Amino acid sequence: MRKYLYAILFVISQPVFAIDVQAPQAYMIDFNTGVVLLEKNADQKMAPSSMSKIMTAHLVFERLKSGDVKLEDMLHVSKEAWQMGGSKMFVQVNSQVSVGDLLQGAIVQSGNDACIVLAEGLGGTEAAFAEEMTRKANEMGAKNTTFVNTTGWPDEGHVSTARDLALMAERTIRDFPQEYEKYYALKEFTYNNIKQGNRNTLLYKNMGVDGMKTGHTESGGYGIVATAKQGDRRIILVINGLPTSKARDQEATALLNWGFSYFKNYKIFAKGDVVETADVWGGEEKSVDLVSSQDIVFTLPRSQRKDLQVKVRYDSPLAAPLKAGDQVGTLEITIPEKSVQTIPLLAAKDLEKASFFQRINNSIHYLLWGKHSS
């Protein structure tokens, strides 16, 4: 079971179902429940290429949120940033560029030069900023990630995993939803009179994709961190190591479509929903509602919905007094041949003891007929 600080969800951990995956590394999760839909070498260290820029932008978002920097702040373009190879935003040496433009250059245009300007302006040096990226990723739980630079430029020590990249993507969406929505779905950006389209071509398909980042190195192949939202579901997918950009896009499209069509989220109870009404012994009232302590959501293959079994367990009758929020029972949810999970059931309201004479009267009725007096 996976718990989030952002939403209280209950999830049965599901096995990964077989599907043909060409990518050497792949990992896909349901954003809402955290259920793993697919994994292949998910913890194998690999070259994250420009997908590293997710963490570069994440740290900039943190600075913006804290007020340490503003979008209109201007940063100096060094010779090192200007002459950096690979994909570029085309900033000019010794010019001043706003943080807002640099973010778009890094995310939309995948500008290596933009990343270095941000790193030098906010971290002093690119190396220092990369160390901060590593610390932050490790704090999130991305323990197999080390950033040597901010761009994903090939380096033997610059590594991550599919699982770690998915975690960074998830945290960006959760921690900075407005910034995510503002930047990652942009399809083009023009700077210095040069218009460039977003390298994430899935944005141009009608399948709910609204981010995040592509990548490519000669040694690591073509990869993508992609996330799509359909209805109230969001899926995060990471694949890497494909031979061409076309193969990357075809595989990502197929896997996302499979994730949405094969699986579905089922909300069994919402937090506070009445699950059962229980008899009460010796109380002012004869019964009390038992309510779910949390939202209960499952990500399941559509074919398995019918196999869900739900049982309520509590000692009947409950004994007064009761306080609202007291755990008085459990809800057991089972999928055949899989794990059984229990969720606390809570008393819905306070219930005081009945008067002495009412308790005597109820006791007699209960002993004789197994129920309270009317």
Q: Secondary-structure blueprint of this entry?
A:
Layout: E1 25-30, E2 36-40, H1 53-66, E3 74-76, H2 79-82, E4 96-98, H3 99-107, H4 112-123, H5 126-140, H6 162-175, H7 177-183, E5 188-191, E6 194-197, E7 209-217, E8 221-230, E9 233-242, H8 245-262, E10 263-269, E11 274-281, E12 287-292, E13 296-301, E14 309-313, E15 318-319, E16 327-334, E17 340-347, H9 356-369
Parallel strand pairs: 11-15
Antiparallel strand pairs: 1-2, 1-9, 3-4, 5-6, 7-8, 8-9, 10-13, 11-12, 12-17, 14-16, 16-17
Helix pairs in contact: 1-4, 3-4, 4-5, 6-7
Which short descriptors sum up this protein?
alpha+beta, six-stranded mixed β-sheet, single chain, 17 strands, elongated, Peptidoglycan synthesis regulatory factor (PBP3), Domain 2, 9 helices, Beta-lactamase, 2 domains, five-stranded antiparallel β-sheet, 28% strand, 374 residues
What this model shows, in words?
This protein has 374 residues and is an alpha+beta fold. It folds into 2 domains: 242 residues, 3-Layer(aba) Sandwich (Beta-lactamase), CATH 3.40.710.10; 100 residues, Sandwich (Peptidoglycan synthesis regulatory factor (PBP3), Domain 2). 29% of the residues lie in helices and 28% in strands. It has 9 helices and 17 strands. The strands form 5 sheets. The chain has a 6-stranded mixed β-sheet. A hairpin with a 2-residue loop joins strand 5 and strand 6. It is elongated. It starts with 24 loop residues before the first strand and ends in a 5-residue tail after the last helix.
